[in-house]
């Protein structure tokens, strides 16, 4: 007779074993990948010797973090103040940062080690911002502070992560030559604070470096700068020392970039906005004949098309107001070939044409002729022939399609191959465009009654959008009504430039000359435009702020 009891226990053991294996298998399942992104930088667990140590005698400082970290650009980011001939050596060991002092220390002196953005976590590169370590070789630590805010001189917005630094007056000659040792970064609201300062006279600067910078040395070509002309005497804690950063205009003209494009045109970028520019091919002079030159609105870039490409090399002069600023040489290979694509862009944003604008076509090359017979215009699928192609009287890159556009109609235009012929006989391929005419009810008008504080001075009243792009700028020196007519409904604002030199533009500052940018005032009243609505507002311009 079978042993039923033994069979029962065998089955029971098998079930228990299977359940155990299943449990162990479940226990090894890993947590799902992903989750919220780590945005927290490493945290300091300890500093040895302690931060703010007095009567300091150690040769090594150890900072321990709660996670692994990387050192990045420590030669650019790290500094010690006062400077030392032999800079400290930074070395990471596991989660610890060791700083070895190589040079001797002065007696009764406060030292500040500033790490900038050199310490960041391994995975997400979250930076430990404004990390510093302070010690004194004497019984006292310098405890004065300097604080304030940095804003953009043009936009009036706070500037975050801008470097604010000071030089003792006797070392101000190092500005633009050597990176500062006393500095900090602004926070997200543009605020900064420099701590542990000693009594003395200083010059203060704020530096917004271009992408790819980071050496904390001012480069006029690419960076923005802010400064206070007068010396700052620090003998107590100072607050509200505010700075405005701006892009300084170059003192001497220079061509920043030049190239011969693959379509045969020449592109130039200048470091200044020219007033009355001119480009002339001086050698060989025959190449100058029939050339096309197109400057952008601010006259700081130019594009040139030479109709005679038989040259090996040309010499070109850049002039402004009749004065030669720079001479350039260009060379080309006789076997060079060029690709020319006669594309067309239009001003029907979002496939809607502003009823107060002409339908405008823009080309990448000078257009020499147009053939309306190769253009097909459909209005709600019905062919129309009573349109015109009109060349712009000044801009050789623009044409207009003239037609009595109607609301609630759909327009399809086919520009057949060869509708437009550019220089060198280049022609467009088939290009199709579609749009509708926006209704006039979508636009509004603002009448602005302006009162000026001083009729002997000049003001620029600028109508700007939410991104602070200038929609319209009006120069005035008296009480007047300005009409901003037929603009799309939306949020708009008023910015006023105190045009001190009466040249009709906003002028930035100059560090060498100690001049600040022309002052700007933003009206706090939002000048919103409602669809199919005329609005009237008063604008009383205050006296220029101090």
Automatic annotation (TrEMBL):
Pfam families to which the protein is assigned, alphabetical: Big_5
UniProt cross-references to PROSITE patterns, sorted A to Z: PROKAR_LIPOPROTEIN (PS51257)
Listed InterPro entries: SbsA_Ig
Record keywords: Signal
Secretion signal span: 1-31
Keyword Lipid metabolism part of the UniProt annotation: no
Domain SbsA Ig-like intervals: 38-137
Residues that span the membrane, as ranges: none
Entry protein name: Ig-like domain-containing protein
Species name: Pedobacter rhizosphaerae
